[in-house]
Amino acid sequence: PKTDPTPRLPDFLSPECDRTDNDILELVLVTAEGEVIRHRVEGVTRSQIIAVARKLQTEVTDPTKVYTTSYLATAQQLYRWLIAPLEAELQARGIENIVFIPDIGLRSIPIAALHDGQKFIVEEYSVSLMPSFSLTNPSYVNLKNAFVLAMGASQFTNLSPLPAVPVELNTITPQLWPGNTFLNQAFTVDNLKLQRDQKSFSIVHLATHAEFRPGKPSNSYIQFWDTQLRLDEVKSMKWNDPPVDLLVLSACRTAIGDEEVELGFAGLAVQTGAQSALASLWYVSDEGTLGLMTEFYEQLKTAPIRAEALRQAQLAMIRKEVYLEVGKLYGPGTWGIPLPAQLRRLGDKELSHPYYWSAFTMIGNPW
């Protein structure tokens, strides 16, 4: 669907069913019109898929492999299992946006990195993640006139610094979008509440460490300047009053292989009350985050849906149109954004490896 998806889709994927390692893969395609197409992939079991998914995660999250294609074998295998059996139906119906509601063990796959042997899936479709149909508000909201509340920190007491955050925030607003920016000491929970009380911001962008950890929700948190906002406290922030249509967390890290963590990440939009969330599965380097976020907000001005804005940003990186050169960040619109000293030391650099762009996932409503 390009703009106005149907809200009538059934939530028939029951989380209550018993799961075993030998379960056979079944793909279920539900179109915007409510048509249901099932495809059983014989000989492919739950344990096989999860093992290959873990291998893909290992390959694309390793910054020492950004000049290799070590991820390709697993990215192609997952494509053959998860996408290829339904490809004829997808193409026959002119589908452009795929929303994944994956089973446990598959919610932290970097879907954007799946590869058909010739190209990445995002070169054909925009993709996103949804915890369930029933928990997601599918209505379309136009963000063209949105105000952005951009907040973050570049320095931390017990966490690694994020030197590109000041550049990231000041590029997003006021250069690309109208809004307000607050950095370091001004990045507090109280100030976030105060700003949202005073003005309606449809987009809230938090450039800071966020950790999704195993165990109870209180183990996971979003780091503010002076405190950690635990995942079990996030809902108390009343993100739907006034409504937040898009919450962006640009420096997340998600523990791989833990079911509770996967649920926490996939349910991020639901937990916060935001219509959708854009977050990273692993901590991407500062230069990768800055490049993708800058191009994402550039694309968000004109893209028909927010998942397409993310796709276009990822495409720009795949095509080597986002790069570092002579101490500046360049993109398709030739920005020439001056980089902080820590990033200037990296020298000239292209950002086409999926390590830099496939972590970023649209969660909840992609429209």
Characteristics:
single chain, 367 residues, alpha/beta, Rossmann fold, 8-stranded mixed β-sheet, 4-stranded antiparallel β-sheet, 22% strand, globular
- How many H/I helical runs? 12
Low-pLDDT residue spans: 1-12
In total, how many domains does the architecture comprise? Answer: 2
Distance between the termini: 9 Å
Assign a percent range to the helix content: 25-40%
Category by helix and strand content: alpha/beta
Strand content: 15-25%
CATH architecture of the largest domain: 3-Layer(aba) Sandwich
Largest sheet: 8 strands, mixed
Radius of gyration based on Cα positions = 20 Å
Short note summarizing the structure:
The chain has twelve helices and 16 strands. With 367 residues, it is an alpha/beta fold.
Structure, explained:
With 367 residues, the chain is an alpha/beta fold. The protein folds into two domains: 24-129, no CATH class; 148-315 and 353-364, Rossmann fold (3-Layer(aba) Sandwich), CATH 3.40.50.1460. The protein is 29% helix and 22% strand. The protein has helices at residues 46-60, 72-82, 87-92, 165-176, 189-198, 231-234, 259-266, 268-272, 286-300, 306-318, 341-344, 354-357; strands spanning 24-30, 36-45, 97-100, 126-129, 148-152, 179-183, 203-212, 221-223, 228-230, 246-254, 276-280, 323-325, 328-330, 337-338, 349-350, 360-364. The strands form four sheets. Strands 5, 6, 7, 8, 9, 10, 11 and 16 form an eight-stranded mixed beta sheet that branches. Helix 1 (46-60) runs antiparallel to helix 2 (72-82), helix 4 (165-176) packs parallel to helix 9 and helix 9 packs across helix 10. The radius of gyration is 20 Å and the shape is globular. Mean pLDDT is 92; it is low at 1-12.
